Input
Amino acid sequence: MPEDAAVTPIPRAREGAPEPSLGADPSSDELVQHLVRALVRRVAEITGQSRVPRRPLMDTAELGVRCVLLPITPPVAELLSPREAEIARMVGLGYTNRAIATVLDISLYTVSAHMRRIFTKLDVGSRAAMVAALSNNPDLYTQ
Output
């Protein structure tokens, strides 16, 4: 680590605090919570991801324990506008751009513009990748 890097001090166990016992819940330990938060912040800094990636941010094993940092995929309502969600739903159901334009009574160019914005927001490059990226959002198809 560079010498000029800002280092957050690691909390020490409070004096008089009981030592954690074997089999104790690590998520209730203040030091473990601090280290996990620091790890997640550092991985986010390194990856510089502004959009939610579709792959693990980190996957490592230490002392027989696997640690995987997976991004949380927000619900479709937070990612896409209502019209974009409607178009994404129709693509997932197998509609072509021309069919979407006809059903929604909008131009083919407008459908294409919505698709480009959806691709950008989801960081995908194809219809199949878009459907795959949205496959874990069941609220998309419950309208």
About this structure: The longest strand covers residues 58-62.
